[in-house]
Amino acid sequence: MRIIIVGDGKVGYTLAEQLSKENHDVVIIDRDDDALRRASDALDVMCVKGNGASGAVLREAGVDKCDMLIAATSGDEMNMVCCLTAKKLGARNTAARIRDPEYARDITMLKRELGINLVINPEQATAAEISRLLRFTGASNIEHFSRGRVELMRIVITESDPLCRVKLSSVRKRSLGNILFCAVERADDIFIPHGDTAFEVGDKVYVIGEPTGLSTFCKQQHIQTVRVKNMMIVGGGRIGRYLAVYMLKLGVSVRIVEIDPEICAQLQEEVPDALVILGDGTDQDLLNAEGLQQMDAFIALTGRDEDNLMVSLYAHQSGIAKVVAKATRQNYAALVRGMGLTSVVSPKHITAAQIVRYVRAIHNTGDTHLDAMYRIIEGQLDILEFSVGKSSPYVEIPLKNLPLNKNTLLAAIIRENRVIIPDGNDHLAIGDGVILVAHDQLLTNLEDAFHG
């Protein structure tokens, strides 16, 4: 596909990096010489200097032959104009990063009037991701698929864990609910487990299944599922506001610590049910005075990665059940994970993942369609959701007779709102939703998952 990215900031660069690795023809438009030079030197992309809303610049970038234009500049209005102009000049699909909550209320109208196919709000998407993480306090990551009917959870194996040093073939004989172990991250290695796999201390294990099945699994494995009743948010920016609204609707008591008096005043007006505290959220004495020890969850969302990670480590050491930190730099995230802080979210990666998921959904071939794609473990593992079309050659054949590729796992089948965690005797049917786990595999349709 030919993809034009307007804006070579954090999100734009991350998108260009991921999409170029997937062999898409990527063009970056930006006004900044240094940003374009960095992209040109590091990535296999074409760079065009100029204003992405300019028809002349878009034509130079080949907008008339463009399959997808992604507007990811820092300005919402700029992104909307880019999409409108690109659509008028022949771009088949457009995506815009729109952050202002005021625009979010009219998003349906904006998409219709401006011809925008996909709208991404990074702060809202990050808040939604954090709210999922808070569902299981013992899990370090939660993803959901097929409109929430299937979820993926990551747990870390400890010395006292009932799964530690137990072969997977033995674990499967236990009554663990409707779940499947689909991937293991061990040190620098990532693999899909088999019957002889024995989990080791420190393994990050990915478990997929129905929400009720995951709940049963957590209870049986004594994984913490304490309901979050009280939480503290440090940083009252847009992510903090969205998250506070989400959690208040669930009946959670929310405290927000914010150092800026003007933002505090806005929070008191926009989120009146939250307790807003004016102060420095990195001050340990302040946090303790405001009841840190009584919190079930602690979320650090300031504008500085260093502050978020340091204060989160303090909360973790204070025994808070669930701690989540926002970090833009992935090298910081990798560092603190080694110190026990496992839940680190990156708005730019969450945004890029949603857009890449959409790109891959429209870049499908044949009669089996890619509906969604999730990238986890810093892009090293793909979770893909397909729908089975009428001409698929793999319907009504027992899975044990299908030649599935190495490093690929058929994790779930969704049939008429029923979730099937399959075994070898199950089969695919026309209209099924299929969730695949793939490591080191580039899949654009269901047929790519099978060899022969």
Word description of this protein:
There is one protein chain. This protein is α/β, with parallel strands linked by helices. It has 15 helices and 22 strands. A 6-stranded parallel sheet has the order 3-2-1-4-5-6, sandwiched between helices. The two termini are 26 Å apart.
Strand-pairing-aware structural class: alpha/beta
User: Could you tell me the radius of gyration in angstroms?
Assistant: 23 Å
Number of helices: 15
Cα separation of the termini: 26 Å
| Main sheet: strands, sense, barrel | 6 strands, parallel
The count of DSSP E runs of length 2 or more, i.e. the number of strands, is 22
The helicity comes to 25-40%
Read across the widest sheet, the strand sequence of neighbours is: 3-2-1-4-5-6
| Multimerization status | single chain
Mean pLDDT: 86
Strand content: 25-35%
Shape: globular
Report a brief summary of the structure.
With 452 residues, the chain is α/β, with parallel strands linked by helices. Helix content is 32%, strand content 25%. The strands form four sheets. Strands 3-2-1-4-5-6 form a six-stranded parallel β-sheet, with helices on both faces. A six-stranded parallel β-sheet has the order 14-13-12-15-16-17, sandwiched between helices.
